[in-house]
Specification:
Blueprint: H1 2-18, E1 28-32, E2 37-41, E3 46-52, E4 58-64, E5 70-72, E6 77-79, E7 85-87, E8 94-100, E9 103-109, E10 116-124, H2 129-138
Antiparallel strand pairs: 1-2, 1-10, 2-3, 3-4, 4-6, 5-8, 6-7, 8-9, 9-10
């Protein structure tokens, strides 16, 4: 009986561990080197992207990390400095994420939409407080 219970526990653990698509090192928070642009990936392969403008407005979106590093973003949500939500007027579409050594690259369409660019992100210990606030409501 003990062996049956132990086997069942191991099967459950193996199934839940194999369900994750993202590499374990990708899990956590990342910062784009040039702006206040953050990406957070959790253990359930949910991806959260938070962009803080110079005037402290926040635009964020969520997606799911899929096989091959593909992320299809939901419609971005825009919040003013005072927390008022307004239409963002943005579409982030599909991005590709990859890990190279200890740097995460996000390939995004350029503003013109004619080509793509690779944004370089470094791992950070935590998201800024304002992004952490919106992360808490992002997946509700």
């Amino acid at each position: 009986m003990k062996h049956i219970v132990l086997a069942m526990v191991l099967i459950v653990l193996a199934c839940s561990a194999s369900a994750q698509v993202a590499e374990p090192f990708l899990v956590g928070s990342w910062k784009y080197l040039r702006t206040f642009h953050y990406v957070h990936i959790d253990e359930q392969d949910r991806v959260f992207q938070c962009r803080i403008s110079p005037d402290l407005h926040v635009v964020f979106s969520t997606g799911k990390y899929q096989e091959g590093g593909v992320i299809d973003w939901e419609v971005p949500r825009f919040f003013s400095l005072y927390g008022t939500e307004m239409p963002s007027g943005q579409v982030w579409g599909r991005n590709t994420m990859e890990l190279r050594v200890r740097v995460m690259f996000l390939t995004v369409p350029t503003v013109s939409g004619q080509s793509t660019e690779r944004l370089e992100f470094d791992k950070v210990p935590v998201l800024p407080t304002i992004c952490a606030h919106y992360l808490a409501i992002a997946f509700e």
